[in-house]
Amino acid sequence: MDIMEKLEILSASAKYDASCASSGSFRNTPKGGIGNGKACGICHSWADDGRCISLLKVLFTNFCIYDCAYCINRRSNDIKRVAFTSREIADLTIGFYKRNYIEGLFLSSGIIKNPDHTMELLSEALRILRCEYRFGGYIHVKAIPGASKELIDKAGKLADRISVNIELPSKESLTRLTDKKHTDIFEPMKQITDGVITSTEERKISRFAPRFAPAGQSTQLIVGATPETDLTIVKLSEAMYHKFNLRRVYYSAFIPVNNDSRLPVLREPPLLREHRLYQADFLMRQYYFNADEILSPQHPMLDISLDPKANWALNHFHLFPVEVNTADHEMLLRVPGIGPRSAKRIILARRTHYLGFDNLRQLGVVMKRAKYFITCKGVRMPAVTEKLQTVYRSLAESHEPGPYQMKLFSTEPL
Ligand code: SF4
Fold first, then answer.
1. CB neighbour list of residue 181: distance below 8 Å, 6 or more residues apart
2. Which helix (H) or strand (E) holds 248?
3. How is the chain split among helix, strand and coil, in percent rounded to 5?
4. What angle do CA 15, 108, 173 make, to 5 degrees?
5. In what helix (H) or strand (E) does residue 89 lie, and over which residues does it extend?
């Protein structure tokens, strides 16, 4: 089969994997080699649907011995099956890179024969790229659940990022919808974490020590295919950030592609829920929130009409208004409309003078949100309501009926 025909099939099959961001890579170009993960500024552009557009994002094969209920490539589906060779993947990547189409490679795969065999094929593609073609650009490779430690170690030494998709938020759901074992996912995650830590320590002693996944690991969770609440999902993400030092958890709204009685029937993919989970995730990573502060057993689902930070602020309305000239950094970050950058600017600016509302606008504060929660020099903004219900109505967002895709990154501070 023509290689471009394979590419068409296998890149279409890869589109359901959202976890292809490449932030955090600092691989330098080898002497006499080509490509540079840092200089390229990889993954700084995103499609409107939130997917990365600067990597060659492709499956090695869509053959699969497993039969995961939600997956288009599952064994029982009658679809056209193709597979690249390791050299074809390497040649495609180099060819596209030289034409300036891409800045790196995101390589995942169905499982062909068995996990070890598949991982060997992926590693061989990476070896050809790194060792034969001396490719220094960004590579993100998926670790195949169930592959041996040696093979994951080999791939981790060649890739910038190696990651395992957790796919479903609980062991029960994983057992019910897939053939994978819980340990097949968490053991490699732990191995990758250890590999990154060991490599970082060794490189402090010798700069010639081998790198291991310098851009760390990420994972992907499907949202809405199983009954777990947002609380379960957010707590799981929090635990994975702490335990495995993940760079990112990607949330992917469940898109029904198979008829399967184990799956829910949805009118449309839960894209808004996915968006709220991303916002909750940002709160944990950048705003010092705990999962327990965002949701509780009494309120286990995120409010679709309100972003989670505004929701927290309204539930703790008695803590507001805060005085921006004296509030500590953590409290500033809890004010809707003040993001990490504007909080830093406020702290710097107020060293030299008292800040008024006009100053806050100049510092990037979104006043239409923040005005309900702050004072400047002890005074509220004129004509601003203190009534909780009115503030709720002002902050709540109305949504057009779907289907549509929310932007992955909010342009305004939460
Ligand atoms: S193992 Fe991966 S490719 Fe295979 S059916 Fe499951 S999700 Fe799909």
1. 145, 146, 174
2. strand 248-253
3. 40, 10, 50
4. 80
5. helix 86-98
In the chain, list all ranges with CATH 3.20.20.70. 3-294
Atom of ligand 1 nearest to the CA of 75: 5
- Inter-CA distances, 302 with 269, 292, 305, 410, Å: 16, 12, 9, 17
* φ and ψ at residue 323, rounded to 5 degrees: -85, 115
Reported as type and span, the H/E element at residue 360 is helix 357-362
Tell me which residue has tokens 């490599």.
Answer: 199
For the chain, 414 residues long, give each residue's pLDDT as a single digit of tens: 788 888 888 888 777 665 544 444 445 556 666 655 443 333 444 443 444 558 888 999 999 999 999 999 999 999 999 999 999 999 999 998 998 888 889 999 999 999 999 999 999 999 999 999 999 988 999 999 999 999 999 999 999 999 999 999 999 999 999 988 889 999 999 999 999 999 999 999 998 899 999 989 999 999 999 999 999 999 999 999 999 999 999 999 999 989 899 999 988 899 999 999 999 999 999 999 999 999 999 999 999 999 999 999 999 999 999 999 999 999 999 999 999 999 999 999 999 999 999 999 999 999 999 999 999 999 999 988 889 999 999 998 755 544 444 444 444 566
The Cα 255–Cα 402 span in angstroms is: 13
Is the Cβ–Cβ distance between 335 and 376 less than 8 Å?
no
For residue 403, whether the previous peptide bond is cis, meaning omega lies within 30 degrees of 0, is yes
* Residue ID of nearest Cα to ligand 1 atom 2: 110
Q: What are phi and psi of 284, to 5 degrees?
A: -75, -35
Short-list 222, 148, 158, CA closest to 184:
148
Q: Of all protein residues, whose CA lies closest to atom 3 belonging to ligand 1?
A: 110
202 CA → ligand 1 middle, Å? 35
CA distance 312 to 222: 25
Specify the CATH number of the domain 3-294. Answer: 3.20.20.70
Cα 296–298–302 angle (5° rounding)? 60
Give 167 Cα–ligand 1 centroid separation in angstroms.
10
